[in-house]
Amino acid sequence: MSKGFFITFEGIEGCGKTTQARLLAEYIQNGGRRVVLTREPGGTAIGKRIREILLDPESKGIDSRAELLLYFADRAQHVAEVIEPALADGAVVICDRFADATAAYQGFGRGVDLELVADLNNTATNGLTPDFTLLMDLPVVEGLRRARIRNGDINHAREGRFEEEPDEFHEKVRQGYLTIASCETDRFKIIDASGTPEEVQAAIRKTLPSPFNVRG
User: Fold this and answer.
1) What confidence tens digit (pLDDT) does each residue in 129-150 have?
2) Predicted pLDDT of residue 157
3) Which residues neighbour 33 within 8 Å (Cβ) at sequence distance 6 or greater?
4) What is the dihedral angle through the alpha carbons of 34, 39, 40, 46, rounded to the nearest 10 degrees?
5) Into which CATH architecture does domain 5-207 fall?
6) d(C-alpha 200, C-alpha 104), whole Å
7) CA-to-CA distance for 17 and 138, rounded, in angstroms?
8) What angle do CA 25, 30, 32 make, to 5 degrees?
9) Residue 133 burial (CB < 10 Å; 0-12/13-18/19+)?
10) Angle between helical axes of 167-183 and 140-150 (0-180°, round to 10)
C-alpha cells in the first residue's frame, strides 16, 4: 500500500484556496492516487454544526476563547474521523485549512497566546502535522473583495462573519501566515494567488513534492 500524504491549503478570506484544493484533488486523482478532499471547519457531520456557529454573522458576540475551543473541537473530531483513517489507508488527504489557520486567525489575528494555541492544537490533532502546506497569498483588499462577492451567493449567505472584521484584523492574519511560513520553509510553499485559477493551479503543480510517499 502507498503511504498516506497530507496536504493543506491556507490563506486569508477570498484567496481561492477552496477552488485550488478541488483542482489539485482532481489532478492527483487523475494520476492514479486515491484522494480525500476535506475542509475545516466542517469536515464531519459534527463539524458542520460547529461551522454554522463559527461562520454565522449572528455569532459576532462569541468570546475569543469560545471561538478557539470550537475550532479545536471541530479539529479533534475531524482528525479522528476523517484524516487519520484516510492517511492510514494510504490516501492523499487535501484539507482546506488546518492548524495553521488557528495560529493565524486566533493567534496573530485575535491575539490569543501562541503557545496556548500550539498546546491545544497538539491535543486536538494527536500531534499530526501536514506533510506539505500551500499558502495562497493575496493582498487583503483583493481577498475581501472576492470574498464579499462570493458571500452574495445564497450558498454562502450565512458564512460571512469573518468578512465583517476590519481590514486591520485581516492584515494581522496575512502577516501571521507569512511569519509561520518563514519559520517552516521545508513544509510551506507560498503561492501568488492573484492570477487566474488556471495560472495559480499551474504554479501549485510545479511545487508538488514527488512522489507522495513520505508518511510512514
Assistant:
1) 999 999 999 999 898 888 877 7
2) 53
3) 2, 91, 92, 212
4) -80
5) 3-Layer(aba) Sandwich (3.40)
6) 22
7) 11
8) 105
9) buried
10) 120
Which H or E element spans position 27? helix 17-30
Cell numbers given for 103: 495560529
Domain locations in the chain?
A: 5-207
Q: Which set of grid coordinates corresponds to residue 215? A: 508518511
Q: Which amino acid is at 125?
A: T
Q: All 3 cell numbers of residue 87?
A: 492517511
How many other β-carbons are positioned within 10 Å of the β-carbon of residue 10? 26
What stretches of 31-63 show up as alpha helix (H) in DSSP?
A: 45-55
The alpha-helical segments, DSSP class H, found in 79-214 are 84-88, 99-102, 114-125, 140-150, 167-183, 197-207
Q: In 3D, which of 100, 117, 5, 96 has the Cα closest to residue 51? A: 96
pTM of structure:
0.91
